[in-house]
Recover the amino acids of this structure.
């Protein structure tokens, strides 16, 4: 892949797509990144100072800017709130879906269309009306596409983060597609040419990454992703005594020997349940008492490690711990996306 391969990164966040490009070994130039989050943009520029970052709503930009991108690949991780299980699931009616609907429309209008598209979102997007709108447009414009539901556990990363992914390539004949066309749920759980562990499934073949039982010694242990903190360094990550006493039982607790952690969200440390695992450094979970000394939160660096971010990814010094959790919770699994990018650009 030559350096002429140009990439436009929509909803760029802290650069998860860019790091995935590097991890996949794709020789490319990210010609522009787009995001409206000021703090995320500072992190992006800190890690990729040579990339121009545009902090404006996508739908407010002129067509001439999109034509000038001349990008071979568009990456995008649109706002997930319209599709999350915990939200109202308003889909395309949600105002936060507006910019992605603009991109869907843009695909028909822009003359210099990207050859490749990689889109990531939460599990739940696949049941939304926005998915149908997106797929109809891809068919009309001439894209061949594949849909995936994948989890980093499949790549032996001890973190459960099920996400929807769509890969598209502009090599099909444009076809008419009615406004009420529906698409069957055919989601892949493997990536051609990659070595992924098959997910657990029930007797009827339904896959449930979150409740599936994994029996693979290949999944790495949490301790491989941990920092070696001194007692003083670990102080900011200790649980509040009141939280440990009143809400300790609702946390997902893991040990350094565990091979699975829960998905880390932007609410990590703010809410006890469903936002990520906590770490019991000594003893057996449920048997030995959790104390302030032997229990702590994962650090932002450790969360980044579990999500597949490389060692050279760093947060600016003025980034607070809470901001770090929020930014990472809104980001993506570099380990999974890099495998998808490799397949999309080289073999699909």
């Amino acid at each position: 892949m030559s350096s002429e391969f140009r990439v436009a990164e929509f909803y760029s966040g802290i650069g998860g797509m860019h790091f995935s490009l590097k991890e996949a070994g794709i020789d490319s130039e990210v010609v522009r990144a787009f995001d409206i989050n000021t703090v995320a943009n500072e992190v992006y520029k800190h890690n990729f100072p040579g990339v121009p970052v545009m902090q404006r709503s996508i739908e407010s930009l002129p067509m001439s800017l999109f034509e000038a991108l001349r990008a071979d690949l568009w990456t995008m991780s649109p706002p997930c709130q319209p599709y999350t299980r915990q939200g109202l699931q308003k889909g395309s009616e949600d105002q936060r879906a507006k910019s992605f609907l603009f991109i869907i429309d843009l695909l028909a209008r822009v003359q210099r269309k990207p050859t490749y598209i990689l889109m990531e979102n939460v599990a739940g997007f696949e049941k939304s009306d926005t998915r149908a709108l997106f797929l109809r447009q891809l068919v009309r414009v001439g894209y061949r596409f594949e849909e995936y539901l994948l989890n980093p556990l499949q790549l032996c990363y001890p973190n459960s983060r099920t996400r929807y992914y769509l890969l598209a390539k502009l090599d099909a004949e444009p076809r008419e597609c009615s406004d009420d066309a529906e698409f069957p749920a055919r989601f892949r759980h493997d990536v051609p040419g990659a070595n992924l562990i098959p997910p657990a499934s029930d007797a009827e073949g339904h896959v449930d990454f979150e409740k599936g039982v994994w029996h693979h010694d290949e999944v790495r242990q949490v301790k491989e992703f941990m920092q070696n903190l001194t007692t003083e360094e670990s102080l900011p990550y200790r649980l509040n005594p009141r939280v440990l006493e009143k809400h300790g039982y609702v946390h997902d607790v893991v040990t350094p020997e565990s091979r699975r952690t829960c998905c880390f969200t932007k609410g990590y440390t703010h809410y006890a349940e469903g936002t990520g695992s906590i770490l019991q450094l000594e003893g057996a979970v449920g048997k030995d008492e959790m104390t302030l000394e032997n229990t702590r939160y994962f650090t932002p660096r450790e969360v980044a490690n579990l999500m597949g971010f490389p060692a050279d990814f760093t947060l600016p010094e003025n980034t607070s711990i809470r901001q770090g959790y929020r930014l990472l919770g809104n980001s993506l699994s570099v380990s999974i996306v890099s495998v998808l990018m490799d397949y999309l650009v080289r073999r699909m």
